[in-house]
Design goal:
- The structure holds two protein chains of two kinds.
- Chain A is an alpha/beta fold.
- Chain A has a single domain, classed as Alpha/Beta hydrolase fold, catalytic domain (Rossmann fold).
- Chain A has ten helices and seven strands.
- In chain A, helix 5 links the parallel strand 4 and strand 5.
- Chain B is α/β, with parallel strands linked by helices.
- Chain B has ten helices and 26 strands.
- In chain B, strands 3-2-1-7-24 form a five-stranded parallel beta sheet, covered by helices on one side. A five-stranded parallel beta sheet of chain B has the order 9-20-10-11-16, covered by helices on one side. A three-stranded antiparallel beta sheet of chain B has the order 4-5-6, with no helix packed on it.
- In chain B, a hairpin with a 3-residue loop joins strand 22 and strand 23.
- The longest helix of chain B is centred in the last third of the chain and has 20 residues.
- Chain B is globular and about 65 Å long.
- Chain B starts with 13 loop residues before the first strand and ends with a helix.
- The chains are: A alpha/beta, B alpha/beta.
- The interface between A and B is medium-sized, with 27 and 30 residues.
- Bound molecules: flavin-adenine dinucleotide and NADP nicotinamide-adenine-dinucleotide phosphate (NAP).
- The site of flavin-adenine dinucleotide (FAD) has 34 residues of chain B, from helix 1, strand 2 and strand 4.
- NADP nicotinamide-adenine-dinucleotide phosphate (NAP) binds next to helix 4 of chain B.
């Protein structure tokens, strides 16, 4: 309750890109806000999921948090965009974006939340990355770029590998506790047992944290939203949403 | 708006009085705890004091916040970060309207309906009588609890000044537009934030300005070291600087106005409600505002002050504050004394009526909204706990009754009705936090 950081040193404003697709008639559905992970931007959702979500009647938005912002700034950006929407929003975060969403849930009472292939534990993600792609990962430990390969992100992401400019910050390795979500929103964990960034065990731990079991899509890589069969997870997410709200 | 609820018994529903900032956040918290809510608002829109179209709104055209944005916004619904440090009142209203829409609170609000009486019934329930402000029809409904968020800055407190005055006298509550001041000779009475703001406006508009205060104050600037003053103050609180040291610093950063003829403060810093105004010293220094002591009496076209000096204003604006009013409750429900001062636990919970609470009856050294938010969270959880686990609720109540007053209420203040609800936001939030923890564990 005592938020001295925000009271004495508020996050300064910054430009954030927001891409939106609104269905013609969207009075009865809550807006969905997608939050991309490390190295990704709103574009990763604009490819397929945004249009599909709007097509199913949800106002669909995706934000690219400020460039070079730390976790606190990214959480701030997500909460700012969520609060700017006309109605209480559903937050959907992917990868490190799911960590940003998990933190934002302590600040904003989302209508519901979906954590897709969530990187909630930086150490586990680091271990997984070192195993799957040691040479792409090592430079990141020394402040360089984290190179993610096709085996990690999935075949669907192959065309986008150059676009993914991931520069992880050391704070991802902090073990700070995730806040308790305000307003107790229903929360869903989605992932793939074949994801080489977020392992099955990490998905199970995330699901346990938010109560429930993960919804799994075998055979997919980390970037579920860019995979060839991207419709399956997003349809499942929107079906779940339809039931929960 | 929704259809009429069933007349009569509303079962587990909670009644909220008022749809200002406090009422809105109360509705939201109660909904989050699963309560059905009927909120009655006598005006035609949300926003309370910040809706300056409302007759009773105390806000004038130029009002900007005195608490800076991060210390004023609801903790779970930030104002846009592109807004200024001190937003204009129209922005605060837009913010409250967006809050209501975002969380779909309008569905629970009945506009143009005034609560005219609330009477305890069996089992801690309440019979609430509501009257349409258009006149006419009234009805009574029974609720499981009542949450009062009627505001305390709308009923003017007018000074009784002996003698007759030929000019115009108005209370600050009726003052809206600086055009009223243009080309006139104006006396402003009262050294609160309203009085200081209006004195400054008069300095910009009127031909002559007198500002009467019955004591000296500490006039804090809006900015210190380039940052909003309340944010700097919170840095000191964060570092847990002792009060004595903070008082010493406060003396260093507030201008010495005795040179302009103002009395020296008769109290230490932090012992009166903060005045935040950077322009008052400026206009005093330019001779545009002439300080005067308390008014002794009116004398025809003149006003006589306690030091014997006189002035002949055309217009006297009494910025002497507002009194809390709970016309729909008998005084003993809120343990109200003969001066009209309610006595509530944490300024929120009625001591003898566990299903009666008041939100927003606070004068903090920060914005009111964050405190009203956490009060609402606590009240909603408390009402829920009473239903789900009466034994624990009783234990919590027992424990709360031993919480020392000094931990949450500012006791060392100038004895004036304007300090009845003075709190330090950090102490106050700590108290609420520990209450919330008790209810969780
Ligand atoms: C000039 C001025 C400047 C201020 N500046 C700041 C500032 O900078 N920062 C800050 O945090 N606070 C400031 N405040 C304090 C301000 O009062 C609060 O911010 C806030 O408006 C309190 O909200 P509320 O809901 O408690 O009361 P209100 O805003 O007064 O709302 C109460 C509502 O209840 C309704 N109501 C009352 N009685 C009944 C009834 N019997 N039946 C039905 N409806 C009823 C009223 O119509 C009203 O809509 C300022 C106040 C004034 C006067
Ligand atoms: N810009 C802003 O955001 C802003 C602007 C205005 C008000 N506000 C807030 O609104 C609330 C109300 O402020 P306010 O200024 O209207 O009222 P207030 O704080 O109650 O101040 C009233 C002033 O009038 C004086 N006074 C009272 N009765 C008097 C009498 N009979 N004779 C002479 N003087 C008398 C008081 O003196 P004593 O000190 O001796 O009692 C005090 O100086 C406060 O919370 C304030 O912070 C904010």
């Amino acid at each position: 309750m005592l938020r001295f950081d925000d009271w004495t040193n508020p996050v300064p404003p910054a430009d954030r890109e927001v891409v939106a697709l609104l269905p013609d008639d969207h009075d009865d559905q809550p807006p969905v806000l997608f939050v991309p992970g490390l190295g990704h931007g709103a574009w990763a959702f604009a490819e397929h999921w945004l249009g599909h979500t709007a097509g199913r009647g949800f106002p669909a938005h995706a934000v690219t948090p400020r460039a070079g912002g730390d976790l606190r700034a990214q959480v701030h950006d997500v909460v700012q965009v969520a609060a700017s929407l006309p109605r209480q929003a559903v937050l959907v975060g992917h990868g490190v974006g799911a960590l940003v969403v998990a933190r934002a849930l302590g600040r904003y009472p989302a209508r519901a939340a979906v954590l897709v292939a969530p990187v909630l534990d930086g150490w586990a993600a680091l271990a997984a990355a070192l195993r799957a792609n040691p040479f792409g990962t090592l430079p990141a430990l020394f402040g360089g770029r984290l190179r993610l390969n096709q085996r990690q992100l999935g075949t669907g992401a192959a065309a986008y590998l150059e676009r993914v400019d991931a520069r992880p910050r050391a704070e991802l390795l902090s073990r700070a506790r995730l806040p308790k979500p305000v307003g107790a929103p229903p929360t869903l964990i989605v992932g793939s047992p074949d994801d080489r960034v977020v392992r099955r065990s990490a998905l199970d731990r995330a699901a346990a944290r938010y109560g429930g079991a993960p919804l799994l899509f075998p055979g997919m890589g980390h970037d579920l939203m860019l995979e060839t069969n991207w419709t399956e997870p997003i349809d499942a997410i929107l079906d779940w949403l339809g039931k929960e709200i | 708006m929704h259809d009429s609820p069933d007349p009569g018994d509303r079962r587990d529903a909670v009644c909220v009085v008022g749809a200002g900032a406090s009422g809105l956040t109360a509705i939201k918290s109660l909904r989050e705890q699963g309560f059905a809510v009927d909120c009655y608002e006598r005006e035609t829109g949300v926003g309370g004091a910040w809706n300056w179209r409302h007759d009773r709104s105390p806000v004038y055209a130029s009002t900007h916040l005195i608490s800076s944005r991060p210390l004023t916004e609801f903790p779970d619904f930030p104002m846009p970060d592109t807004w200024p440090d001190y937003p204009h009142h129209s922005q605060v209203l837009a913010y409250l309207e967006r809050y209501a829409k975002h969380f779909d609170l309008g569905r629970h609000i009945w506009f143009g309906m005034e609560v005219v009486s609330a009477v305890p019934a069996d089992d801690g329930r309440w019979d609430v009588t509501i009257q349409s402000t258009g006149g006419g029809s009234s009805r009574t409904q029974r609720y499981a609890a009542i949450v009062v968020a009627n505001g305390h800055n709308w009923s003017p407190m007018k000074p009784e000044i002996p003698g007759d005055f030929r000019g115009e006298v108005m209370h600050a509550g009726a003052y809206k537009d600086p055009a009223r001041l243009r080309g006139r000779k104006v006396l402003v009475i009262g050294g609160g934030n309203t009085g200081c703001d209006i004195a400054v406006e008069a300095a910009q508009q009127a031909t002559e300005v007198w500002h009467s205060t019955r004591r000296g104050y500490w006039y804090a600037p809006k900015y210190l070291l380039g940052r909003p003053a309340d944010q700097v103050n919170d840095r000191l609180l964060r570092w847990r600087l002792p009060l004595r040291l903070r008082q010493w610093l406060y003396r260093r950063v507030t201008p010495d106005l005795t040179r302009f003829g103002l009395p020296r403060p008769d109290h230490r810093p932090y012992e009166s409600h903060p005045i935040v105004n950077s322009l008052l010293p400026y206009y005093l220094g330019h001779g545009r505002i002439r300080p005067r002591p308390d008014v002794a009496r009116f004398d025809g076209s003149a006003v006589e002050f306690t030091d014997g000096s006189r002035a002949e204003p055309d217009l006297v604006i009494t910025a002497t504050g507002y009194r809390p009013r709970f016309d729909f409750l008998t005084p003993e429900l809120l343990d109200t004394d003969e001066h009209g001062r309610p006595d509530l636990h944490l300024h929120a919970f009625a001591r003898k009526h566990p299903t009666l609470a008041v939100i927003g009856l606070l004068q903090p050294d920060s914005g009111v909204l964050p405190l009203a938010h956490w009060q609402s969270v606590a009240v909603a959880r408390w009402l829920r706990l009473r239903m789900t686990d009466p034994a624990r609720a009783a234990a919590v109540q027992q424990k709360e009754s031993t919480r020392p007053l000094t931990t949450w209420s500012r006791r060392r203040v100038v004895p004036s009705s304007r300090h009845w609800f003075e709190v330090d936001h950090v102490d106050y939030l700590r108290a609420l936090e520990s209450l919330l923890k008790q209810m969780e564990s």
